[in-house]
Amino acid sequence: MDKGSYILLIEVKTRLEIRTRARRFELLPGFYCYAGSALGSLSGRVKRHLKKSKNKFWHIDFLLEKGKVLSAVLLPSSIKREEEISALLQEFGEAVKGFGASDCRVSSNLYKIEKEDFYKALKSIYEHMGVFT
What we know:
This protein is of the alpha+beta class. It has helices at residues 42-50, 59-64, 82-89, 115-129; strands at 4-12, 16-19, 24-27, 30-38, 68-76, 94-95, 110-113. The mean pLDDT is 90.
């Protein structure tokens, strides 16, 4: 199966202003967690995010132009679970309002998070999804 959701842990080293086609986001230095989904090709979507040179389409493309992906967690599934995962992430991090969630009922898919809380968030997500039970 090559469909599912993913979580990226991203490091931002300096204060950033991210300008997308229609929005502007201010990000402070630190770590950020991003939840996304790919119902076409999960591995292909994550590989695309890891490329430095690409056409910018999603909010995350504009962030990854300047931020560094430290970790990518792939969560295979035949259904879209991005919103569910994002809702769990908001328990561990501070939402960047409006970032990457235009097709979801959550306020964001990007969360400023302490690095050690990333691992706690993953544990919670794994438990929720029935991984390692």
